[in-house]
Design goal:
heterodimer; A: 359 residues; mainly alpha; ABC transporter involved in vitamin B12 uptake, BtuC; 14 helices; 1% strand; B: 276 residues; Rossmann fold; 6-stranded mixed sheet; 4-stranded antiparallel sheet; 30% helix; 29% strand
Chain lengths: 359, 276
């Protein structure tokens, strides 16, 4: 065997090892993030506090430490669960959109889904009086409104960017800008119409945070995100076919139009729910699938589960950092992800231009 | 089983691009569609694949209109290779070829799928490159991967089952040897229950491997017949606007077509003066 061949084999082995290790590493990161999210905060708790509370919950024993119990189960647990679900949802949405647009630069925030969802959510807060009749169902009004807003935005951008069965990158990004601007204008209009209390809620939407999580407020949104994540196994192979080309996918037996509509609806539901409870948290959907694609390749059977876990891990750790930087104040997590994600996105654009990629 | 086109008309916007085309192909036949650019060859292939529904007339399989089938049913009876592939994500070659087995996944016959993929990789001479990323291959190699994908799709464990292979310019980026191996492969498959249809531009590839040729010009079916009936100088000259001459290769016994100049030239161009 020639030296060159040996080197090539070693290179492939290394890639293969990395590929196999990716999922375990991501799971470790996520579990670490969960532990850190549960332990870290204003009241300091130890790992033994955590294990004792967990044990008492599992055995349904009488709590020995009421305060630790309350902090863990009522304050931190919902926040961590929300972090897992929102992170996974945003990353998986990004993966789906990148496949549908056959373009690795697509993401809910960039193509306007988040703006559409935010505008609808804000409108619901300001015009919420109309929903008062719903009673406790009002908790569903926010995620459902955000879902509808996100769906309209996605369909709009898809219709604009589609040129002969392909989406062009420039039209997609420009369409995203236009739809985001429209969403922003609607939000501005709502802020103009709102009172002081509503204005505070709206500011929260614009910055993005996991801080408002309580079980009651997040359960409806968790359900919607769970639907999207639960659909993953049915999407993975089919998204691979879409990457092959829409006409190829059709010739291989996929009902392409139906499938795309299902995907867009799922993404709008997931992103709408995420936006409804945590505001706009940008760039998770582009950074996670993109980085993982370098390691595990484009096959969605690996990429999608990896993205879900990676997205959860990223958001958990971002939340931990956001809470640690300037205690007792919290940096809004959306600000943090944008600070890190936007330069990454610029680097991607630069790289794409340099390589003269088709997209 | 017969793949049949009956008085097909197709409009693109206000323009009619196919006029009353009727033809058919059966297992055992290799139909090659010839014609100048814009003659409607790809459109005809799209109608035959069931992707495009004709504005008038019907394309049918075994007497049933193609639009009556679900995409999955069609995918189990025919494979379609498009003129230009648009894959820009770095799947490894084997994974791309394995996507051709997608219509059969519910059968759960993993061994058959693996056999199909291996056979397709061998047949297209891509076996040694099967772990390479698709995006790192040359244009011709990418075309062979796409060919392998449709071959994997029509692979069967027995030759009893009729199915169809539709190829739109499968040889456009290939070197000379692979052009011929591709066409010979398609021809050989017709002895194994496959009906093949290919759009090509090389008249002599058609001459060597087709059992039947359809000559299209400006959306009309100008002629339909055996290679010997179609590849005659007068007809080819008229349709392609280029003067051709016929030569006979004694070794193969085949008649080949050689271009000698533009048809509009009143006379053949004067041969270049040999250097003294």
């Amino acid at each position: 065997m020639s030296v060159l061949a040996v080197q090539r084999t070693q290179g492939r082995d290394l890639t293969e090892i990395l590929r196999r290790l990716t999922l375990p590493i991501l799971i470790l990161l996520m579990v670490g993030g969960i532990a850190a999210g549960l332990l870290q905060g204003a009241a300091s708790l130890s790992l033994s506090d955590l294990s004792r509370v967990l044990w008492e919950v599992l055995t349904q024993a009488q709590p020995t430490d009421q305060v630790a119990h309350a902090i863990l189960l009522e304050i931190r647990a919902p926040r961590v669960v929300l972090g897992v679900m929102v992170g996974a949802t945003l990353a998986v949405s990004g993966t789906i959109l990148q496949a549908l647009f056959r373009n690795p630069l697509a993401e809910a925030g960039i193509i306007g889904v988040s703006a559409g969802a935010s505008a609808a959510a804000v409108a619901t807060i300001v015009l919420g009086g109309a929903f008062a009749a719903l009673g406790p169902l009002i908790l569903y009004a926010l995620p459902v409104a955000a879902f509808v807003g996100g769906l309209i935005a996605t369909l709009l951008v898809m219709a604009v960017a589609r040129v002969g069965g392909q989406s062009s990158m420039s039209t997609m990004l420009l369409g995203g800008i236009a739809v985001s601007a429209l969403g922003g204008a609607l939000m501005g209009l709502m802020m103009f119409l709102s009172n002081d209390e509503q204005l505070r809620s709206i500011t929260f939407w614009m910055l993005g945070s996991l801080g408002a999580a309580t079980w009651t407020t997040i359960v409806p949104a968790l359900a919607m995100m769970a639907v999207m994540l639960g659909a993953m196994p049915a999407l993975m192979r089919r998204l691979n076919l879409i990457l092959l080309g829409e006409r190829e996918a059709l010739s291989l037996g996929l009902k392409v139009d139906v499938f795309k509509n299902v995907c867009v609806t799922l993404v709008a539901a997931g992103v709408g729910a995420a936006v409804a409870v945590s505001g706009t948290i940008g760039f998770v959907g582009i950074v996670v699938p993109h980085l993982l694609r370098f390691v595990v390749g484009p096959d969605h059977r690996v990429l999608m589960p990896a993205s879900a876990i990676g997205g959860a891990a990223l958001l958990l750790w971002a939340d931990v950092v956001a809470r640690t930087l300037a205690p007792p104040a919290e940096l809004p997590i959306g600000v943090l992800t944008a600070l890190l994600g936007a330069p990454f996105f610029l680097w991607l654009l630069r790289r794409a231009t340099r390589e003269g990629a088709a997209w | 089983m017969k793949l049949n086109a009956h008085q097909i008309n197709v409009d693109l916007g206000a323009q009619r691009v196919l006029h009353d085309i009727s033809l058919s192909v059966e297992p055992g036949e290799f139909l090659v569609i010839l014609g100048p650019n814009g003659a409607g060859k790809s459109t005809l292939l799209n109608v035959l694949s069931g992707e495009r529904v004709a504005d008038a007339g019907t394309a049918s399989l075994d007497g049933i209109a193609l639009h009556e089938f679900t995409p999955l049913e069609l995918a189990r009876k025919r494979a379609l290779m498009l003129q230009r592939a648009s894959l820009t994500f770095p799947f490894v070659v084997r994974d791309v070829v394995a996507m051709g087995r997608e219509p059969f996944l519910d059968d759960g016959d993993v061994k058959a799928d693996e056999t199909a993929v291996d056979w397709a990789l061998e047949a297209t001479d891509m076996h040694s490159l099967q772990q390479r990323p698709y995006t790192k291959l040359s244009g011709g190699e990418q075309q062979r991967v796409q060919l392998a994908r449709v071959l994997a799709q029509i692979w069967r464990s027995s030759n009893d089952e009729a199915r169809f292979l539709l190829l739109d310019e499968p040889t456009s980026s290939l070197d000379l040897a692979h052009q011929h191996t591709t066409m010979r492969l398609a021809h050989k498959l017709t002895t194994q229950g496959v009906g093949a249809v290919a759009v090509v531009h090389d008249l002599n590839l058609a001459a060597l491997y087709a059992t039947k040729i359809a000559l299209l010009s400006q959306g009309h079916l100008v002629a339909l017949g055996t290679p010997d009936q179609i590849l005659v100088p007068d007809l080819i000259s008229e349709v392609f606007g280029i003067s051709v001459t016929q030569v006979r290769d004694e070794a193969s016994g085949r008649t080949l077509i050689v271009p000698v100049g533009l048809y509009s030239d009143a006379t053949r161009p004067a041969p270049l003066q040999a250097a003294q």
